[in-house]
Amino acid sequence: MSLAVRLEGLSAGYGAGVPVLEQTDLEFAAGSFTALLGSSGCGKSTVLNTVAGFVRPTAGQVTAGAEPVRGPGPERGVVFQHYALFPWRTARGNVEFALRRLGLPRAERRRRALAALAEVGLADGAEKYPAQLSGGMQQRVALARALAAEPEVLLMDEPFGALDALTRTRMQTLLRELWQRRGTTVLFVTHDIDEALALAGRVIVLGGSPGRVLADHPVPPGPPDPDLRSLIARRLGSE
Ligand SMILES: Nc1ncnc2c1ncn2[C@@H]1O[C@H](COP(=O)(O)OP(=O)(O)OP(=O)(O)O)[C@@H](O)[C@H]1O
């Protein structure tokens, strides 16, 4: 299950001053996995936040499938760098809580929460509280929380940025597997060029103020291509 995402003539910002995005056009095919790279402050999170429906565009529009985005919705799941779990709820409780807004009966919430926790490899940790879980496990709960609603678009803002290198590699492998199995459209913000190339089928470099697309490359399957890596690195460095 997946939806195409389209940004058309999108302008967005925060109050007065230079807009963060101006007249941006981008299209993400249904089921695609795209990484967004770019220097700090260029508007990567703002792109995600407009697709999530957290930030309203000042002009233009975002559509997910056939529907214009008018606010947050369960078909668009979000995972941030900071897991924002409720410390007083168990892993299962955190996932179940996120399902409340879907109006599902309690037994179905429980079934879905346990299935999503199993899918991210946390079946044994379902009854643990966040303080009893490592950073990587907490991020698995955050991922399960997003997946349990069965989103058709997954918006990930530096989700593995706070994890140590080994845990990060494991989470990348898990995410690739989930994406291959579910076929969800993924928009993934990262600062890490190697992470972008390892995960995504397309890499976009944003930059400037207002932010615009500096580079947009398909990533061929197989081992990372050093020429593509240096091309993207130059784009990132040229800002
Ligand atoms: N809630 C907010 N209120 C005011 N300004 C904001 C807000 N969020 C972001 N900005 C500003 O908008 C610009 C773009 O921010 P955004 O978070 O989209 O960039 P980014 O590329 O994701 O940056 P980073 O890589 O540092 O996370 C920045 O100048 C930032 O200071």
Describe this structure in words.
The structure is a single chain. The chain is α/β, with parallel strands linked by helices and 239 residues long. The chain contains seven helices and ten strands. The protein has a six-stranded mixed beta sheet with strand order 6-7-8-3-9-10, sandwiched between helices. It has a four-stranded antiparallel beta sheet with strand order 2-1-4-5. Helix 2 (91-99) crosses helix 3 (106-119), helix 2 (91-99) runs parallel beside helix 4 (135-148) and helix 3 packs across helix 4 (135-148). The longest helix has 18 residues, at 165-182. The structure holds adenosine-5'-triphosphate. Adenosine-5'-triphosphate binds at residues 14, 20, 38, 40-46. This is ABC transporter ATP-binding protein. One of its GO terms (molecular function) is ATP binding. Residues 5-233 form the ABC transporter domain.
Number of helices: 7
- What is the H/E string? EEEHEEEHHHEHEHEEH
Overall geometry comes to globular
The span between the termini is: 37 Å
- As an assembly, this protein is single chain
| Spatial order of strands in the largest sheet | 6-7-8-3-9-10
Class from secondary-structure proportions: alpha/beta
Helix share of residues?
A: 25-40%
Average pLDDT, all residues: 93
Low-confidence stretches: none
Number of strands: 10
Organism: Streptomyces nojiriensis
GO molecular function: ATP binding
Protein name: ABC transporter ATP-binding protein
InterPro entries: AAA+_ATPase, ABC_transporter-like_ATP-bd, ABC_transporter-like_CS, ABC_transporter_ATP-bind, P-loop_NTPase
